[in-house]
Amino acid sequence: MTEHVWSYQPTAGHLAGTDLTGYKVEATDGSIGKVDKHSDEVGDAYLVVDTGVWIFGKEVLLPASTVVRIDPEDKKIFVDRTKEQIKSAPEFHRDKHLGDTGYREELGTYYGAGAPFGGRPA
Length: 122
Known about the structure:
The chain contains three helices and six strands; from the N terminus they run E-E-E-E-E-E-H-H-H. By secondary structure, the protein is an alpha+beta fold. The chain is globular. InterPro entries: Bac_photo_RC_H_C, PRC_barrel-like_sf.
């Protein structure tokens, strides 16, 4: 089951209704881009991050569970993955994958399997 992947961690500091568009996104080893779109929907929360030139102008979809901290003062979002883990995720194409449940399951499995501390959360 991968439903937990699409929810913010209670400790992330996310407030429903907050517009995160334009916030910088920081991986554990550096900046990966800015939030272009996001969803607060319960059980289907995510960030679409424009990576700019970092991965040749691509966008990545990050499930909300990857967010460990949101800093509204500096407009930064910190995620618990490395740049390489994010770059290695299943490729995202907004017009094709945004509403695709098969892609969501694949991504949920990828990020769920990469859960911190080496275990799959229940």
